[in-house]
Amino acid sequence: MNRGRLIAIAVALVAALLAAYLLRGLLRSTPAPQVGGTTAPVVVETTPMSEVLVAAKNLNIGEKLGGFSVEWRSWPRSAIAQGMINRDTQPDAITALEGARARLPIVVGEPIFDVKIVQPGDRGFMSAILPQGMRAVAIGISDRTAASGFILPNDRVDIILTRRGSGNSGGRDISSEIVLSNVRVLAINQALREPDGSPAIADGRTAVLELDPQQSEVLAKIESSGELSLALRSLAEEGDAGSKDDRPVLADSYRTGRSAVAGGPLVVRYGLERLITNR
Fold first, then answer.
1. Where is pLDDT greater, at 233 or 263?
2. pTM of the entire predicted model
3. What angle do CA 53, 47, 110 make, to 5 degrees?
4. Running DSSP on this structure, what letter comes out for residue 265?
5. Sorting pLDDT into bands at 50, 70 and 90, what band is 158?
6. Taking Cα atoms as reference points, which of 191, 179, 175 lies closest to residue 222?
7. How many helices (H) and strands (E) does the chain have?
8. What whole-number percentage of the chain has pLDDT above 70?
9. Least trusted range by pLDDT, from 85-94, 171-180, 198-207
10. 170: phi > 0 → left, psi -120 to 50 → alpha, else beta; which?
11. Pick the residue with more confidence: 139 or 201?
């Protein structure tokens, strides 16, 4: 190997060592400031956090807050607004709100505000639990016509109409028929109250039922034509009344128009159009 090549290799080696030394100096961290001859600790400022209740999924109007629909999430204390549900002040909020409903739509991740929910007993709770297109209709009941008090909210019932009239032979004709089936009971034997807290009905025994507008109209007409009774349905039969969306079903003979039931004459009785069939 000639002398020139050896000199070139030596220069390259020195350059490499110098580059490594400079790189090591750049990567070396800046030493902590000295206070009184000792190294001062590095102070990292953190934002004080708390936990607020937020929606774990999109909540529609009237949807329940129970189950896995809400959760606690860390939130800066300085950003907690009035009306948010804070875990520091309401640690059992998830359990307490199991029966609450969304008064307004709430998107996933949005904090739960008091003004956006309604709880049982609050004004507007009944309208919040009603599905779209349905109505709450109240009828008078007694222990005899309501299964001796065994019917409770969220039970399903059939509504039976019993009429008593004078027969041609001088006797009294009694007829009974199921007018509506698979009807959900929203409330039963509950006293309604005015906004100031005073009772609006001191001693009322009523059942509030979930019906669509046409069924509500039919029920209002027949209530004065006879006695209405509620027949409790078995849980095993829930939703088998021919309605895919588990809604109440009006008897064919009470549906307006001849298209309800094929054949048969149309008879108007007690202010209602009815189709007479041989079934």
1. 233
2. 0.54
3. 25
4. -
5. very high
6. 179
7. 4, 14
8. 69
9. 198-207
10. left
11. 139
Distance CA 54, CA 70 (A): 6
The CA distance from 219 to 240, in Å, is 21
Question: Which residue matches tokens 């929203």?
Answer: 186
Which of 51, 88, 100 minimizes the C-alpha distance to 71? 51
The one-letter amino acid code at 205 reads: R
* 3-class secondary-structure state, position 59: strand
Outline which parts of the chain fall under CATH 3.90.1210.10. 49-127
Structurally, what CATH architecture does the domain formed by 49-127 represent? Alpha-Beta Complex (3.90)
Provide the b/e sequence for 50-60 (b: ≥16 CB within 10 Å): bbbbbbbeebe
Exposure class string for 252-273: b at 16+ Cβ within 10 A, else e: ebbbeeeebbeebeeeeeeebe
Are the C-beta atoms of 210 and 154 separated by less than 8 Å? Answer: no
CA distance 56 to 61: 15
**Structure-token pair, residue 266:** 């149309």
How many residues are there in the chain? 279
Residues 275 and 266 sit within 8 Å (Cβ to Cβ):
yes
